[in-house]
Amino acid sequence: MPPKINDSRPSAEEIHELEEQTAEGARRIVATYAEDLLDGVTLMSMLGVEPTGLVYKKFAEELAPEEAEPAAKKATKKATKKKATKKKATKKKSTKKTTKKTTKKTTKKTTRKATKKATKKSTGSAE
Fold this sequence. Notes:
82% helix; mainly alpha; Histone; single chain
């Protein structure tokens, strides 16, 4: 005859209590290692142990305008730097193009002169 097996599963209340204790411990650990408030809240929400009533989207939206101002200033500086480098690049390209055009023109002129002289000499020597 097989041995009797007792039901050793914890009740729903015990499971809920254990979950709360675990979440509380996880929050403490996250708070210890988080560098700032946003970092802590982000990690807690990623782990699923955020405090009751906290909605991460709302929190992020409220905090976003405060952090967006310094980021916007940095973005404008970068944009102006990009524009300046583009202007420099276009100037360099335009100068390269003009130098190429002038060299082509001068080489064409010299070759024309040389061919004219050669034709004059050949016709002059035939007479």
